[in-house]
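Possible regression after last week's pipeline update?

I re-ran a chain I had predicted before the update to compare outputs. Posting the input and the new output here so someone can diff against the archived version. Not blocking, just want to make sure nothing changed silently.
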Amino acid sequence: MPDCIAATATRAVGGGLESREKDLIVAAEEPVTSPDQHAPTPVKAARIAGTVVIVMLLLMLFGNHEGNVESIWLISIAGILAAIMIIDIVLRRNGLRD
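New output (post-update):
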């Protein structure tokens, strides 16, 4: 590390140059990976979980609430989740998403 950068780092941290060097060592040990090296998303599990959440939200309509505000929120959230799932299915079918 050049002296001018070390002096700036020392002033910015308040004399903690040792902690800055430790951070650099830890960062150097971390492997660099690209997104395609990670495990794929379990699409089937995500679709099942989304369907279960939608069903649970719609089952909450049958309760002891008196106003319709709760019903509007439950139906809206379930509809948004359903739309997200449908868009995901269409994009995957057309090959526009992994």
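Follow-up from reviewer: compared with the archived run. Residues 69-93 form the longest helix (25 residues). Marking as no regression found.
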